[in-house]
């Protein structure tokens, strides 16, 4: 979603009054078992996917069956989860779930040996899809995009003003639709930081492709958690930063 705004554009010293499109940003408040826990700046589309993905990638839930109720009231999302999961979340909330692999209940996060591979041709093709179908970015220049692909085909794509939110929307859609993510590839428009790689790990996705680079911590986590990071995917070239055995020989 975007909005028209009056602006003054300066070009070579000349001032021109015109209208421009800006991306819509809202503030979402998330209530968990009747308590306010999250305040999230985000784009206003697909908010239930966003909340579900955030709860999943934060380790608060492990499946949609643990959500007993989710209700939107304006830009307030009220969620009820199983009491056992809520108690585990409260016990661990002092340690940010977005930044740590330890002390999060529910499962081991390391990606198992995955048969998923990718060719150089598919890397180029998928990045082209990401750029082509990021419609709000093309109109406003100000959103991040994330998508999921399998066998060279784009399955879903979401955009958001927050880069983490874009991934959470993708994961949330998969969780709500009971889609397996372990045989798919994540496309992402932004840099692959530690938190982004952790979200990928928790979703069970073995390969991440981005036109942007990773951070040192992102690479370190990817190495330990058996994730293939492909960055600087632009034109005919890209860099593979971890677990390059998943790259097919052309």
Describe this structure as you would to a colleague.
By secondary structure, the protein is of the alpha/beta class. Helix content is 30%, strand content 32%. The protein is built from seven helices and twelve strands. The strands form three sheets. Strands 8-7-9-10-11-12 form a six-stranded mixed beta sheet, with helices on both faces. α1 (47-57) packs across α5 (163-176). 38% of the residues are buried.
Features:
single chain, 250 residues, alpha/beta, Cytidine Deaminase, domain 2, six-stranded mixed β-sheet, four-stranded mixed β-sheet, 7 helices, 12 strands, 32% strand
Summarize the structure.
With 250 residues, this protein is of the alpha/beta class. It contains seven helices and twelve strands.
Set down the secondary structure blueprint.
Layout: E1 2-11, E2 14-23, E3 26-32, E4 35-42, H1 47-57, E5 67-73, E6 76-81, H2 83-92, H3 120-133, H4 135-140, E7 144-150, E8 153-160, H5 163-176, E9 185-188, H6 194-203, E10 207-209, H7 216-225, E11 228-234, E12 237-240
Parallel strand pairs: 3-6, 9-10, 10-11
Antiparallel strand pairs: 1-2, 3-4, 5-6, 7-8, 7-9, 11-12
Helix pairs in contact: 1-5, 5-6, 6-7
Low-pLDDT regions: 96-107
Number of DSSP helices?
7
Helix content range of the residues, please? 25-40%
Structural class: alpha/beta
Q: Return the string of H and E elements.
A: EEEEHEEHHHEEHEHEHEE
User: Strand portion, in percent?
Assistant: 25-35%
What Rg, in angstroms, do the CA atoms define?
A: 19 Å
Average pLDDT taken over every residue: 89
Large-scale geometry: flat
**CATH superfamily label of the domain at 120-246:** Cytidine Deaminase, domain 2
In the CATH hierarchy, what is the architecture of the domain at 120-246 at level 2? 3-Layer(aba) Sandwich
Largest sheet: 6 strands, mixed
Distance between the termini: 40 Å
CATH class of the domain at 120-246: Alpha Beta
What is the strand tally? 12
Strand neighbour order, sheet with most strands: 8-7-9-10-11-12
CATH topology of the domain at 120-246: Cytidine Deaminase, domain 2
